[in-house]
Write a structure and sequence with these properties.
Blueprint lengths: L1 H27 L7 H17 L4 H24 L5 H21 L10 E3 L6 H9 L4 H11 L10 H20 L3 H11 L1 H6 L4 H27 L1 E3 L6 H16 L4 H23 L9 H48 L1
Length: about 350
């Protein structure tokens, strides 16, 4: 059980980067961007291809981020310059990226143009590079000894992956918090709230939308690049349903932690991604469920995340109204008694 939850937390933190990208489009820009399903694979394919060709994993990851940024900008250009519906522009880019991703992974093969998957079992990744440094510190043995002393017999092989992704995700959260409070960040937030208002201040909303979509998909591609290096493979179909996972993370986090400030909201999105992966891991431990039911479980989680907050709010509203009615009933007899004495 502990190892399953540990792995769920590791994956949840990586997927939290993707969820932050989804938050930028769906909540900040109010743009239903379906490019995510394609740009996630673009990041994974680019990083895996470059790693397999012998490039340094950090360079491969940076190039993957740039590739995701370009994909997001293309979606923005289709919408703003081509005057295509936001939903349709994302779908068109997602479809185009499927073929592009096959081409990217095909660069590792000599006799074929496209390739559906790339294994990285014997390749150096960001995590293996860090683990080589981490193993000399002796922290794994100390932490695992502590866990065994607490009665947990199944312990993780290394804590290095968790440490490095926690550091990366915290840095991204801090940068996102800072960026959304800058002049450009505030303009992007204003564009999502009211385009006409921000245009009245002579702001170029087209550029802001393109930039916002580019940054969003850069984060998504970054997450894909890390997932490919974490799971040691990249597959052209690994991005299916990513937009639903991202939305589930955002909705769960907002429902539990609220959205009063930007700092709180970005934390909620990250926490939501971790909670989602934990729920998924626990669900898969049920006897009659298996890995093939992941999409069904995801859909159920999203449905519950959407419905439960509404039910809770309605219940709170009924209680508030009942309390208000009771207070009014107590006030009326006092007023009537005062009139009788007069």
């Amino acid at each position: 059980m502990f190892l399953a939850l540990f792995g769920a937390v590791e994956q949840g933190i990586i997927y939290a980067i993707m969820a932050l990208g989804v938050y930028l489009t769906f909540r900040v820009l109010d743009f239903p961007d379906l490019t995510v399903d394609g740009s996630f694979v673009t990041g994974a394919a680019t990083a895996a291809t470059m790693v397999l060709l012998g490039y340094h994993p950090i360079l491969a990851t940076l190039v993957a981020i740039v590739a995701g940024f370009i994909a997001g900008c293309m979606t923005g250009i289709l919408h703003t310059k081509g005057k295509i519906n936001p939903l349709l522009s994302g779908i068109l880019m997602m479809i185009a990226l499927y073929s592009i991703n096959l081409r990217i992974m095909g660069l590792t093969a000599e006799n074929t143009i496209g390739r559906p998957n790339i294994p990285l079992l014997n390749s150096e990744t960001i995590f293996s590079k860090f683990q080589a440094f981490w193993s000399n510190l002796g922290i794994d043995d100390a932490l695992n000894s502590l866990l065994k002393g607490m009665g947990i017999q199944q312990v993780p092989g290394t804590w290095s992956v968790l440490i490095v992704i926690v550091i990366i995700t915290i840095l991204i959260k801090l940068v996102a918090d800072w960026f959304l409070k800058t002049e450009v960040g505030l303009a992007i937030r204003a564009t999502g709230d009211n385009k006409r208002m921000i245009r009245s201040f002579s702001a170029n909303t087209d550029t802001l939308i393109i930039l916002g979509l580019g940054l969003s998909n850069a984060l998504v591609a970054f997450s894909g690049a890390l997932i490919a290096q974490y799971s040691k493979f990249a597959d052209v179909s690994m991005g299916i349903g990513m937009i639903v996972i991202g939305l589930a993370s955002v909705i769960i986090g907002e429902a539990i932690f609220g959205t009063k400030t930007i700092i709180r909201t970005t934390f909620a999105v990250i926490a939501g991604a971790i909670i989602y992966r934990i729920i998924l891991a626990l669900a898969l431990r049920v006897d009659f469920l298996d890995s093939g039911d992941m999409k069904l479980i995801t859909a159920i989680i999203v449905i519950l995340a959407l419905i439960l907050p509404q039910l809770i709010n309605k219940r709170k509203e009924r209680k508030r109204k009942a309390k208000r009615a009771a207070e009014l009933m107590q006030i009326k007899p006092v007023e009537q008694g005062g009139k009788g004495l007069a």
